[in-house]
């Protein structure tokens, strides 16, 4: 039998230096506990509980029946890219042609491919935190240096970004609506940032996964604010369209960058699942009322979850996405020294799953998802409140 340390020494350092996804790992733990008969309320979910629209499913099935199961266009079906052009112009005020677009296996893949294409060893990438932890790991895999700046408020702290920029800065990641805080950045803040970096040849990656889930504000795309060719827009069908399992995302960028990413894409996965793309086409043809009804339900859940949250924690009202990010520091003690231990305690004693701030490169907070039925939200907070009565 091969000695464990000898075997481990043969694994590439870049793989051993990567931290596993806490959110994915926790989802697996929750699924396992449920399969064992445990009554677990999952307020950790990063996906809507809504079913994918019937029209979308039917068009996917139709594509299968019609035999659309072969290799397809590397950058995405032409019809889908045309529909995306229409969508981003109507919804986001972004002018694009199919040559500006590549369709990928979710936005996670394209973010990885962008960083692999743009970042050289030693290049700096500015990331406001708390954030989606995949950003950091993707930067590490590209050989870049992540520069983390704290941005816990309801708007983008442009001054901190300005102060973090150096001669080695290659890219800035902006995520609005934000995961995990639910912040929706103002047009004024984004304009200020665009004006500052316009002549610096710094790429800006605008991750807009939650761009259609906005309640009390308006989503602003960087590419609609400024025609800077260094702006890269990333969107997905996963969140707003309740199509997480379809694994379809896309980027909008300068044609030369699209071509370079396409070269890399061709050696990784080739085209996105062919028949799934026809479901994506159908999703862009759905009436707006269908999505507005779901947004209205989400807003009701947000308001209820926020009311419960404020009874227990300090928390900002999220303007977008489907998360709250309350401060739990007053409950930390010798038994729960950080947010991770706090979440473990609640999972064990309350049967409620949350995401700790450490999974978002932060501290002292937890991410609470309201992408769950109202009764689950109510029961979840009732359980949390009952347990916390004995922790202070």
TrEMBL record:
| Aminotransferase class I/classII large domain residues | 39-379
InterPro entries, per this entry?
Aminotransferase_I/II_large, AspAT/PAT-like, PyrdxlP-dep_Trfase, PyrdxlP-dep_Trfase_major, PyrdxlP-dep_Trfase_small
User: Which cofactors are required for activity?
Assistant: pyridoxal 5'-phosphate
Sorted keywords for this record are: Aminotransferase, Pyridoxal phosphate, Transferase
Gene Ontology BP terms: amino acid metabolic process
According to the UniProt entry, its GO molecular function terms are: pyridoxal phosphate binding; transaminase activity
CDD domains from the UniProt entry:
AAT_like (cd00609)
- What domain of life does the native source organism fall in? Bacteria
Recorded hits in Gene3D superfamilies, A to Z, give: Aspartate Aminotransferase, domain 1, Type I PLP-dependent aspartate aminotransferase-like (Major domain)
Please provide an example of a Pfam family that matches this protein in its UniProt record: Aminotran_1_2
What PANTHER family has UniProt attached to this entry?
A: ASPARTATE AMINOTRANSFERASE
User: Which family, according to UniProt?
Assistant: Belongs to the class-I pyridoxal-phosphate-dependent aminotransferase family.
The protein, known as: Aspartate aminotransferase
């Amino acid at each position: 039998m091969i000695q464990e340390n000898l075997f481990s020494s043969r694994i590439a350092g870049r793989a051993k230096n990567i931290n596993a996804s806490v959110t994915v790992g926790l989802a697996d733990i929750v699924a396992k506990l449920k399969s064992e008969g445990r009554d677990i309320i999952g307020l950790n979910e990063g996906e809507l509980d809504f079913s994918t629209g019937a029209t979308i499913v039917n068009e996917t099935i139709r594509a299968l029946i019609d035999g659309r199961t072969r290799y397809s266009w590397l950058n995405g079906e032409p019809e889908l890219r045309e529909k995306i052009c229409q969508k981003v112009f109507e919804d986001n005020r972004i002018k694009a042609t199919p040559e500006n677009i590549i369709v990928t296996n979710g936005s996670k893949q394209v973010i990885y491919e962008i960083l692999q294409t743009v970042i050289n060893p030693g290049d700096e990438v500015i990331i406001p935190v708390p954030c989606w932890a995949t950003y950091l790991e993707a930067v590490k895999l590209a050989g870049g240096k992540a520069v983390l700046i704290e941005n816990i408020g309801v708007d983008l702290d442009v001054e901190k970004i300005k102060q973090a920029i150096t001669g080695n800065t290659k890219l800035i990641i902006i995520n609005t609506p934000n995961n995990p805080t639910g912040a929706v950045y103002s047009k004024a803040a984004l304009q200020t940032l665009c004006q500052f970096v316009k002549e610096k040849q710094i790429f800006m990656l605008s991750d807009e996964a939650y761009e259609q889930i906005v309640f009390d504000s308006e989503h602003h795309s960087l590419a609609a604010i400024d025609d800077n060719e260094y702006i890269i827009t990333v969107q997905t069908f996963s969140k707003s369209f309740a199509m997480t399992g379809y694994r379809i995302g896309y980027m909008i960028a300068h044609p030369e960058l699209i071509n370079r990413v396409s070269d890399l894409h061709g050696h990784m996965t080739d085209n996105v699942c062919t028949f799934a793309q026809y479901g994506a086409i159908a999703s862009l043809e759905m009436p707006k009322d269908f999505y507005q009804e779901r947004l209205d339900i989400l807003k009701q859940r947000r308001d209820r979850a926020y009311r419960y949250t404020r009874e227990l924690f300090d928390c900002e009202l999220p303007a977008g996405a489907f998360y709250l990010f309350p401060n739990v520091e007053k409950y930390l003690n010798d038994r729960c020294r950080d947010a991770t231990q706090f979440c473990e305690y609640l999972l064990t004693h309350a049967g409620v799953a949350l995401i700790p701030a450490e999974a978002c490169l932060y501290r002292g907070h937890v991410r609470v998802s309201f992408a769950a039925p109202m009764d689950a939200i109510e029961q979840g907070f009732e359980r949390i409140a009952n347990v916390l009565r004995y922790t202070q």
